[in-house]
Amino acid sequence: MISKKELRARVLLIVVCFAIGCYCLYYMDKSYDPLARYPYTNDENRDIILEYLDSDDIDYLVNQHITPDKFMDFIELSDFDLKNTLYYKEAKDTQDADNEYIVNFVNRFRKKFSYESLKELLSHYSYIDLTTFYENEAVLYSNLRLVTDPTNPYTVLNQENTVYKYAPENLVSYNGVYVQSAMVDDLANMLDAYKSVMDEQDQLSISSGYLNYEEILDLYVNASKEFSGIDNYMFSAGKNEQQLGYTIVLNGQDEWINLCKLYLNEDLDYTQVQEELSKENQNRVEWLLENAYRYGFVVRYEMGQEKKTGHWYQPFVLRYVGVNTAKAMHDSNKSMEQMTFKDELE
Fold first, then answer.
1. Is 47 in a helix, a strand, or coil?
2. What is the pTM of this model?
3. What's the structural domain count of the chain?
């Protein structure tokens, strides 16, 4: 049987060991460096990182291999979120702005874009345009998709795809209208070719080319006051391909549309429209259908493709796609909605 003296000695030993253990733990905790596994600290950033990031954040830094240059510009901002820091950095590098503005923008609209698409979006759209689009257009039209790269020459716009207020950079003036510079030579050749085989008084001319967002919106609003079915031949601003600069509308379009309004029925039979069209415009339609593709142009809204294009047949609306692609589309009788395009014009 253990004596009282021996029992007291054992208890005392346990207490001493416990005290020593607590002291060791305290010392280890006090001396532990939470940034020991993070090799990118220095005298300038260590204290700031420790002040603004907790242990979970530091673990995230380590696991994701995020270097200080990706977040030090934003770390002291009140709304800074380490999980979004790569987006902040990508946004700032692509389109510089106030750091607080960038943090707020990314935090608010983070679910609207991927890390991969953010750079491309900010290469073509301003922060203000993206903000107004996400707050207004995307709310009103839940199925509306903002085209990430509106510079793609084969971009297709419709009721689901929009370039919002995007304005192309490579526009040039030709015969009083603006068009993409890539199409000027082929356009001139097409107009000259028509002139060479027709009467001197009968010429193809361009009634409109590139139109900006505000111009299209005005046209659409005014036209919709006169005709409830305007979407059959024209989409509103942002969704209208004339905003891209690759689409031209030729003289004859007004007569064609007015006849469609009068005679076109639900069966989309254009017989009477074609018969009532002036002889001059009938000749133009025939020539365009046989020859426009030779110069890189296709009838954008073809007959028989109405369900795919969302528009009536419009032989006076041409889209430039390049000579090789235009021939392929002509030979296969495919609309742009049915094509798989290369990334660039030939």
1. helix
2. 0.85
3. 2
